[in-house]
Amino acid sequence: TPGRRWRVEWSKTPQPVQIKLKTIRGIRDKVPKGRYVVMISLYDRLGGHVLRWSRRLGQQWGGATLPVYHDGHYSNTEIHLEQSVFTVLPPQWKVQPGMILVFELFLLRGSISPIDRVVAWGAFPICDSNFAIVQGHYKLPMLRGHMDYRITKHETIEKLIASDIDHWISNLYIQVVRLPRYLSGQKEYEVELQFTSGLLSHPDRIENSEEAVDGEKIPIMEDGEDNNSSTGVGWLLYFGTSGKSGPSVDLTSSTSGVKSGMSSSINEGSGSNVLRKRKMSRTSVERHSPKVDKKPPPPKLTRMEELERHTFSVQPPFSSKGKLQRYYRYVSRMFISEMGFSLWRTKDFWITILLLVLLWFARLYIHYCGQWLFLQALRLPVNTFIFFPYTVNLNYQADLLTTAEEVGEVVLGPISNIIVQVLLVLFSWVSQKALGSFPLIFSKLILAFSLWVVFDPIMILIVDAALGRYTNSASQPIGDAFKLYWHFLRVEGSGVIGIPMVIFLYAVVMFTAFVILYLYFLKLHNNGRILDVFHRLCGKEEAFFVPYDLELSNQELSFIVKKAEQWRGEDGERRKVTVYDYIWSEEIDPMKGEKVEEVTTHIAIHTLHLDGLREIYRHFLRLPATDGAIVEVFGELGTTNLTPDVKTALLKRANSLENI
Length: 660
Prior knowledge:
The protein is α+β, with helices and mostly antiparallel strands. It folds into three domains: 14-178, Immunoglobulin-like, CATH 2.60.40; 347-541, no CATH class; 551-658, no CATH class. Helix content is 32%, strand content 23%. It has helices spanning 154-163, 195-199, 223-226, 285-288, 303-308, 323-339, 347-377, 403-435, 440-454, 456-466, 480-492, 498-523, 529-538, 554-566, 644-658; strands at 5-7, 15-25, 34-43, 62-64, 68-70, 78-89, 100-107, 117-125, 136-144, 168-178, 190-192, 233-238, 248-253, 382-387, 392-396, 551-552, 574-589, 594-608, 614-622, 630-633. Keywords: Membrane, Transmembrane, Transmembrane helix.
């Protein structure tokens, strides 16, 4: 009945997702043996705050896998997880481009560690360049140690790994699946309560075969299928970081409370910080859908082919079109986010409002002080110079000024604010170069002041018009926008030419202030995080540096070699290190004797037995100088035993040399 029904706006409903944690490759002996779990947390930005559940005090957004054992041996290169975490992410209209998922690898307490401790962590964005929740196969590098909140940019992680590969510990392979908001026979836009009907034994709508709103028959559900439903999982997520209660969404799937779909504001008491798979009522597809010819399933991929599908880039395929529009959407959304306008109940919003109120007076008084200084430089007497909260009375004898001086008096007010704006931007740039960072509160101050500077001529015009300063009166000053009109009326008998001149001057001044604001926002605000996030969301795969799964540093290789040379077995065995250079060369111009060479180095460690038996222990490949990576190879040396990323790199280099 209509009394038991309401509609749900799915655009404002969190998106349920399934995060499949597949494997951690390249872990080897970088961590001790023990039991490990991977914990997932949602952060508002890199180096920011973890998002929390709105109505469950003390519980943060997060989920974790079951413990998995790793023996800590060099030959065990992977931790096979093969587990899923079910949870919800913000709806698309509330997604901020800087939001990330943080994956932390925990070593559980045991003989190695008396407490649970983080041994590795990695960050991954939750949206792509179109601000849609990511979906697909991805991989991300994991840094050694616990999460460093001083890292606020993705570029910092990349530079940290590129400078020293020992900061990197492994690559995590994941798959993100956006779950549907409805199943077969369920309405995405409609939710109906069934609890009272079940208690009073009244027949419900499904049993009466009542038609849906669009005329489609709702399939009948068997009584036995109700028993397999979930007992109720409440989903309450607050997309903010302050301690106050904010906008929240309560999503519940329960047989006793709700039979289908998801809704807003249902059961406040139910909830879980780790969302697991929901068992929802389902209808038999075979009974309600005609038989169709099934297509043959695609061939099953091998494990190596499956790993090749994972990418670090989140840019969706065929997304090169509409780049300018996407760039505009990104900048506008990030500007609203940085100003704190997206969530009015958060602390950032009220800090921004306070800054805007305080900087209103700073912008106003700087404007008129600049004009007063200009009049003092001209040695022109000033009749009144009185400050008010909303304006300043600056009265002088306008008939003593020439046309150029009157134009200078009009533009000197906005230009004074632009000069202060430039000085603040330079101060931010110098601080970032000298100290490496700039406080966030001062970045917000510069951003708010720059916003006022852009609209300073408009604000002055609105206040002057409200005070009636568009007339030539001896009792009150003339407004800035009307000075040139009265000047040309007094000098040439017609003030019409002053109107387009003022419009042109204001347009130039506002455009200049906007360009400074735009450049500051992209390159300097919040230590350059805006441009960093844009590059992370829109960059292609080849634009990023991700280590190979079995890559190791030169220092680690030297340690392995020295340790192997010092090793002695129980029966007198020892280990020998051999180095082979495989040189590939090709002449480009035989007349000039120019040629191209590439050297691939093979470092092999053999175990030598007393009876002369020579057994391979470990061996490594140093890729050509253009790449320079050192990777470990298992088994016999050949392309069949190379990992897919190393094999792809070698094939790319071979193809590029053939095209020279």
